[in-house]
Prior knowledge:
Layout: H1 3-14, H2 18-36, H3 43-50, H4 54-61, H5 64-90, H6 93-100, H7 103-109, H8 115-123, H9 132-155, H10 165-177, H11 179-186, H12 190-205
Helix pairs in contact: 2-3, 2-5, 2-8, 5-6, 5-9, 9-10
Amino acid sequence: xxxxxxxxxxxxxxxxxxxxxxxxxxxxxxxxxxxxxxxxxxxxxxxxxxxxxxxxxxxxxxxxxxxxxxxxxxxxxxxxxxxxxxxxxxxxxxxxxxxxxxxxxxxxxxxxxxxxxxxxxxxxxxxxxxxxxxxxxxxxxxxxxxxxxxxxxxxxxxxxxxxxxxxxxxxxxxxxxxxxxxxxxxxxxxxxxxxxxxxxxxxxxxxxxxx
Length: 211
């Protein structure tokens, strides 16, 4: 077998299936949009990360807005899986929320390039042409996930039975989304963040959090 035949064989073996190609694009686009936001993110940057041309991206997704929508759907599925796993491992909904809302975890969630930054960006895009509906759906799906988690906690006797789980979910989302505002005004406010987490847990469970 000559060199050209070997090279051709390796090329065929390395060729991605349509599903693999879409997944590689979505992974790269998630990194780009989480780091720079939708408005500043460029399809060219996504293409460069995986070594393809921009037309390949558009052949798979049609537009930048459609790509961002697919990224949000993929990220939401990951968050849903993570929330469910955290609740299973922690043993109770309140314990999983205490971990998720801890200052260190929330700080990591808002770090550049994180999924938290991606969702924060989506929450600011609810009037952006082309992605407004997708952005609203993403935030609403996050609220629905948290609503389901709180309802599960009520069924287990861990969350106050008189709490409206939907209201509790939006309270948690509001707490998280205002983190950047608090940081801009207060700087390093870990003590404040810990107090806000404790207040939230006390409100949701009706009992003080463990020391």
